[in-house]
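Margin note: ligand = magnesium ion.
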Amino acid sequence: MKQSLAILGSTGSIGEQTLDIVRENPDRFEARVLTAHSRWERLAEQARAFDADTVVIADERCYAPLRDALADTDTKVYAGADAVAQIAAAGDTQVVVNALVGYAGLAPTVAALSAGKKLALANKESLVVGGACVMPLAAEKRAPILPIDSEHSAIFQCLAGERAPVRRLIVTCSGGALRDVPAERLADVTVDEALRHPQWSMGAKITIDSSTLVNKGFEVIEAHWLFGTPAERISVLLHPQSIVHSMVEFEDGAIKAQLGTPDMRMPISLALMYPDRASRPQERFDFLAHPQLTFAEVDRTKYPALDIAYDCLRRGGTAACTMNGANEVAVAAFLARRCRWTEIVRAIAYALERAPFVARPTLDDLAASDAEARRLAAEYLASVG
Ligand code: NAD
Ligand code: MG
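Resulting structure:
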């Protein structure tokens, strides 16, 4: 029996690589549902190539051209953000791959889990913002969440078969595009520089998040929710080669690590196939080509976002939601060349200082908190010109 997939964000970096896995395994998977934000031409190509049942375009202005492009096919076409969440819960797919970027991923995560579906989760923002709602829902519906994020896939693999409590999760960190840029130059960093990630080719937003280490902070929060590990037992270790994808230390001092060439198709395929594994013959890691794996402390003065994220995790409630909303606005402004790179973390700090805090937020509280964080970040960015 083939597994039928809904791939949310199929035109993005993770979405396209998920379709690579479907293409490599036509006997195991079928991509029934595909969604995109506004790249309707690419979505139409994908719908034809994979003979999709349904496509959803989030931006309603793209509905008519997408519908016309698929007029000669049986593919059903819908539009709007609500339709993305509705399709995540709809009956005929077994697995939802959430490869959306940002807060927009939360509602589809909740919808998929509410329908009891297996969720292959790349959209870490779902957990950063709403982990306290998402994880109990997954437990209640017995809906498995399989991480796609490489660090969490690594930790998941290290924990497989273990019953003993862990002493520490060790999340590795490449250092991002600006790792070797001195702190005093950061205010003048260009968009192109910040987008030049040394190891991974990813969407623009996560590449900027990697350069500020907001991404690593979010991954600490994500690890907390996925594995139930408290903040003080999660550490971050700089590992420029990105070969050790993360590690788990147990109470007896043993450390398990998961290693491999940086290629997101590995964690994507594992999330889809677990407990099986894909057969990807081209994957042969050569230790002799990587004779040096190095580790170092993260510079927490150069990268204040990491401690801000730890602080949000300890505070709980809406704190991380505020951090995420402000970050999304500031990253978009930086990418549009409307603010300096250094203003991203300042916008986050500004929003966190002023936003109302709700200790036990509902999904509605999270929506309000996200909107307020965006307003505050925009206010800050306007004030600095
Ligand atoms: P991307 O920007 O390349 O793709 C995002 C996809 O979501 C696109 O298909 C886009 O059309 C769609 N989308 C964007 N905004 C939307 C909205 N408001 N409503 C509906 N659809 C929308 O992003 P990506 O790099 O593939 O990242 C996706 C997620 O996976 C992010 O949460 C990211 O942090 C996480 N992730 C990515 C990588 C990677 O290698 N790219 C690695 C680990 C985790
Ligand atoms: Mg990651």
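The chain has two domains: 3-147, 152-262+292-383.
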